[in-house]
């Protein structure tokens, strides 16, 4: 049997475990002691990732534009994460998309089960990442779907719980692809390249885009588990629409975990492994994880903007020098994604394991 055709064990929906009202979580979800949120150190509550206003990015105020570019450059080099406001995506559309997904996850289980996924493509309704038998699992369910390239976009694999559901999700994806394209130009300029160069390295217009909607049910023992284990994102760039009321995302900063405080109608932007590779580690993909809680469920929409799947990704030649040799070998995103899907979330070990010996 192809190990990516079927899950190694019967799938248990975390939402069903939560709804059962049991006081204990199954052993399959209990993290090793040092990975538990109750043990690892979190920074002071007044620390947050950078918040950047994009309103002046395309105006006539050149000084303001330079300031915004500089803010994004610092965030990419020092944090790997930042929030953007006044980004051009309709706030009403953001709210509508979030409510569509909330309605899906609160639908009867038989409705959701009609969209159950397999590890072959991950498309649809799922409850685990990775195919290692006996692996410790995360306290979350999710829905995964493709936007680009067009041949992978299959509306029949999108939920259709309301009449306008698919139209809302289609427009949401369209606006986020446009925002990612604008941010790619900024990142390219900040690397000292032409504004289209990073996008061209992704494949120009032939990029990939997909979304994973994460649902984190209430958890009776939140100190023992995680909604999503520590990992860096394997793709190019991620735009996260977080829950507007419930914090949960934590970003690693040195030895601390920073709990992100979402700004209303902001997107949380983070650099993925593919941009770390292309930038020869000038820009950092950073570990992050998700906490759960005992009182409130949580929902987030993660939109992934990725390179064309079959072109080699390696450090751009303009960012390589005798005193800064290429840190990574060439690898297609397809190859890297298969590597990730076999193993599940593993901190930063995925991309770090690819580094060329020095």
TrEMBL record:
Q: Which residues form the Fe2OG dioxygenase domain?
A: 206-307
Q: Where are the transmembrane segments?
A: none
Q: Which UniProt keywords apply?
A: Dioxygenase, Iron, Jasmonic acid signaling pathway, Metal-binding, Oxidoreductase, Plant defense, Vitamin C
Recorded hits in InterPro entries, A to Z, give: DIOX_N, IPNS-like_FE2OG_OXY, IPNS-like_sf, Oxoglu/Fe-dep_dioxygenase_dom, Plant_2OG-oxidoreductases
Q: Which GO terms describe its molecular function?
A: dioxygenase activity; jasmonic acid hydrolase; L-ascorbic acid binding; metal ion binding
Pfam hit, one = 2OG-FeII_Oxy
Q: Report if keyword Cell cycle is assigned.
A: no
Q: Does the keyword Amino-acid biosynthesis apply?
A: no
What's its catalytic activity?
jasmonate + 2-oxoglutarate + O2 = (1R,2R)-12-hydroxyjasmonate + succinate + CO2
Co-factor(s): L-ascorbate; Fe(2+)
A GO BP annotation: negative regulation of defense response to insect
Which family is this protein grouped under?
Belongs to the iron/ascorbate-dependent oxidoreductase family.
- PANTHER family from the entry? OXOGLUTARATE/IRON-DEPENDENT DIOXYGENASE
Protein name per its UniProtKB record = Fe2OG dioxygenase domain-containing protein
